[in-house]
């Protein structure tokens, strides 16, 4: 077939819809459209644009295309019966239709950039997920539980996050491991001699320091 039409609707005298290049939304609506209108899929034809459009010049009344399709003037001259153009561009005329969705995506991108979520996802997928999370209470059994030997088990890709009481870890050993590059980084919310924090940690960009406020939220209080 020189020009393939999905579901022949000529007997119903329905207007033909020309699809130059399918925009992103087309795949979601294609099934609905083919049940209502004969679709002319120009991008699937081996013919040049002029030759493809010529037999349908007076029957095409609507066109679906990408907003970036060039040579609109030339196309419009070939379609004297055209009444409607549908694109994937909202532009400034869309009002508030996409405001919520656009705002959500903006916030999502911002959080991703600031929190490096995508980068962290790739990090985990590559098999580098050596993380020690310390959140237990301080008892005689847990005091100095995380020694240098424990920290070294996680190796140079290891990350320590700690919201538990300070003396649970051997803080000096952890600081030394960070300085020597024996572990990858640390996130610390509690310290062994608060409010004092080891000065060496202030010079490290692979350490995140928090002033003992993990649970200080409106929901907690």
UniProtKB/TrEMBL annotation:
<dbReference type="GO" id="GO:0005829">
    <property type="term" value="C:cytosol"/>
</dbReference>
<dbReference type="Pfam" id="PF02826">
    <property type="entry name" value="2-Hacid_dh_C"/>
</dbReference>
<dbReference type="InterPro" id="IPR036291">
    <property type="entry name" value="NAD(P)-bd_dom_sf"/>
</dbReference>
<dbReference type="InterPro" id="IPR050223">
    <property type="entry name" value="D-isomer_2-hydroxyacid_DH"/>
</dbReference>
<dbReference type="InterPro" id="IPR006140">
    <property type="entry name" value="D-isomer_DH_NAD-bd"/>
</dbReference>
<protein>
    <recommendedName>
        <fullName>D-isomer specific 2-hydroxyacid dehydrogenase NAD-binding domain-containing protein</fullName>
    </recommendedName>
</protein>
<dbReference type="GO" id="GO:0030267">
    <property type="term" value="F:glyoxylate reductase (NADPH) activity"/>
</dbReference>
<dbReference type="GO" id="GO:0051287">
    <property type="term" value="F:NAD binding"/>
</dbReference>
<dbReference type="GO" id="GO:0016618">
    <property type="term" value="F:hydroxypyruvate reductase [NAD(P)H] activity"/>
</dbReference>
<keyword id="KW-0560">Oxidoreductase</keyword>
<feature type="domain" description="D-isomer specific 2-hydroxyacid dehydrogenase NAD-binding">
    <location>
        <begin position="128"/>
        <end position="214"/>
    </location>
</feature>
């Amino acid at each position: 077939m020189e020009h393939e039409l999905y579901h022949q609707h000529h007997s119903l005298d329905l207007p033909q819809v020309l699809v130059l290049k399918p925009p992103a939304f087309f795949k979601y609506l294609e099934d609905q459209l083919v049940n209502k209108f004969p679709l002319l899929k120009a991008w699937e034809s081996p013919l040049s644009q002029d030759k493809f459009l010529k037999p349908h010049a007076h029957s095409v009344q609507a066109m679906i295309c990408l907003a970036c399709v060039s040579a609109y003037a030339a196309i419009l001259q070939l379609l004297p019966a055209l009444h409607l153009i549908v694109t994937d561009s909202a532009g400034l005329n869309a009002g508030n239709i996409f405001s919520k969705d656009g705002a959500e995506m903006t916030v999502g991108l911002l959080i991703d950039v600031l929190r490096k979520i995508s980068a962290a996802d790739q990090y985990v997928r590559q098999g580098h997920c050596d993380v020690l999370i310390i959140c237990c209470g301080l008892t005689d059994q847990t005091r100095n539980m995380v020694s240098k030997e424990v920290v070294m088990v996680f190796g140079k890709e290891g990350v320590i996050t700690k919201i538990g009481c300070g003396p649970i870890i051997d803080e000096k050993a952890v600081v030394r491991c960070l300085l020597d590059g024996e572990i990858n980084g640390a996130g610390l919310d509690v310290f062994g001699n608060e409010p004092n924090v080891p000065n060496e940690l202030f010079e490290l960009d692979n350490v995140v320091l928090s002033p003992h406020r993990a649970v200080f939220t409106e929901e907690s209080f």
